[in-house]
Design a protein that fits this description.
With 140 residues, the protein is α+β, with helices and mostly antiparallel strands. The protein has a single domain, classed as 2-Layer Sandwich (Alpha-Beta Plaits). It is built from 5 helices and 4 strands, in the order βαββαβααα. The chain has a 4-stranded antiparallel β-sheet with strand order 2-3-1-4, sandwiched between helices. Helix 1 runs antiparallel to helix 2.
Length: 140
């Protein structure tokens, strides 16, 4: 092999502080845009983003020189700053922890629709995967 090859696919989940429903329909597009922008700046390929008013799911292909903790810290930091700048009367923040799950290329065929259809899964009692919804620090 003449050069290195890595396919590192991750499914990340993190929640708002105290599971507050701060990700409203008005805010979500800007917050997601911010998260995607930071991920791209870190040279991640964003495969899917979705969530509910109290949490976010993100699927990415991670380059080998980007640390998972940097990706999460920088996306959470930038998106909370953006939200607080736009809504200074509220103190938006994310929960401290996050969950991260690795998958392979084949696994993406179920992970991506799961992320993109979060509202459907939650609203209609769709098939949730409890292990992929848990964001408590103990899971990390």
């Amino acid at each position: 092999m003449r050069r290195s090859k890595a396919e590192v696919y991750l499914h990340l989940v993190w929640a708002t502080h105290n599971r507050q429903p701060w990700l409203t329909p008005e805010r979500t597009p800007l917050i997601y845009h911010c998260i995607v922008g930071v991920a791209k700046r870190l040279r991640c390929t964003v495969l899917a983003i979705g969530g509910m008013p109290d949490h976010v799911h993100l699927a990415v292909r991670l380059p080998t020189d980007t640390r998972i903790s940097d990706l999460v810290q920088q996306t959470k930091s930038a998106s909370s700053k953006l939200t607080n700048d736009l809504h200074p009367q509220e103190f938006f923040r994310w929960q401290e922890g996050y969950a991260v799950f690795s998958t392979d290329r084949k696994g993406l065929s179920s992970v991506i629709p799961y992320i993109e259809n979060q509202e459907h899964h939650h609203a209609l009692g769709g098939k949730l995967r409890p292990s992929l919804e848990e964001t408590d620090e103990e899971v990390i």
